[in-house]
Amino acid sequence: MLGARPLHASLYLTRAFQGARVAPIITVSGLNKTYATGFTALKNVDLEIRAGEIFALLGPNGAGKTTLIGIICGLVNASRGQVIADGHDIKKEFRAARAKIGLVPQELNTDAFETVWATVNFSRGLFGKAPDKAYLEQVLKDLSLWDKRNEKIMALSGGMKRRVMIAKALSHEPRILFLDEPTAGVDVELRRSMWEMVRRLRENGVTIVLTTHYIEEAELMADRIGVINKGEIILVEDKAALMEKLGKKQLSVRLQAPIDSVPEALAPYRLELSDDRSELVYSFDAQHENTGIAGLMRQLAASGVDFKDLQTRESSLEDIFVSLVREPS
Fold first, then answer.
1. Nearest by Cα to 61 from 228, 281, 289, 293
2. Closest CA to 209 of 231, 187, 182, 239
3. Which residues does the UniProt record annotate as the domain ABC transporter (predicted)?
4. Least confident of 60-69, 168-177, 285-294
5. Which of 37, 187, 223, 229 could be 53's S-S partner, Cβ–Cβ 3.0 to 4.6 Å?
6. CA–CA distance, 72 with 54 (Å, rounded to integer)
7. Can you tell me the mean pLDDT for 145-154?
8. CA–CA distance, 226 with 240 (Å, rounded to integer)
9. pLDDT tens figures, 63-109
């Protein structure tokens, strides 16, 4: 398991942490991308990512997440705009900027006929790094791949192949690690162990930028959340602040007997009646001193609406995300 070893002692963590600074490690300014077909994938994107944070980039399919990551990593040319990665312009100083970045793409693209050791060692060499057996050995051990080092990648399970992709991304000791849907198609146990590794990387100064369709992972892992939709960044916020500002609590009132409609006297509370007409749902801001619950209870009694159960529920990040990207009716 990845969490079984003290990752903070790993060579790549120690080295990546050297020179950490407070200023943003990635700065994206006025970024646009229009393809030859005329499709505009990104529109005037401005974004700063802080050194040493876990930044989750969320958005529906086709929102521009992969295009944005591709441009920052130097794999896609922008139509207009600038990207600075750890002080280097990704276009003018491509090699210096790219050397700071590790990328785990969505698709598995390793050479199936190579061994684990050969592909990771080759990846290090691509970035001009001198051979370092001790360093790569530690990376493979931290990813529970050391025992598989002499096996061909084609013989590995999907989860093990995903670990090889992470090992390749870490092979050249980057300070920034992009994880594009890193847990897609892997089992729950591996997913948890991978996130434990990600936390420890962050604790030691490595900046993590991830996209995920598992929104609960972003809610669990991220320090900040960015939401992109139709090529535009529509929100960037600290996770806790986002949950506080946009999150709501709901009080579910389970009725003794179904009702045909919400009594007119309860209209100010904007209650929602469930499809089976046996539950009323009241949304409120838990941060306000007066939540309105006491008044609601009194009005329910005055209206002759009897209930048998009360339950509260807090909005999840998924609820907030859906509300942000929902098409206007």
1. 228
2. 182
3. 26-255
4. 285-294
5. 223
6. 16
7. 94
8. 13
9. 899 999 999 999 999 999 999 999 999 999 999 999 999 998 877 77
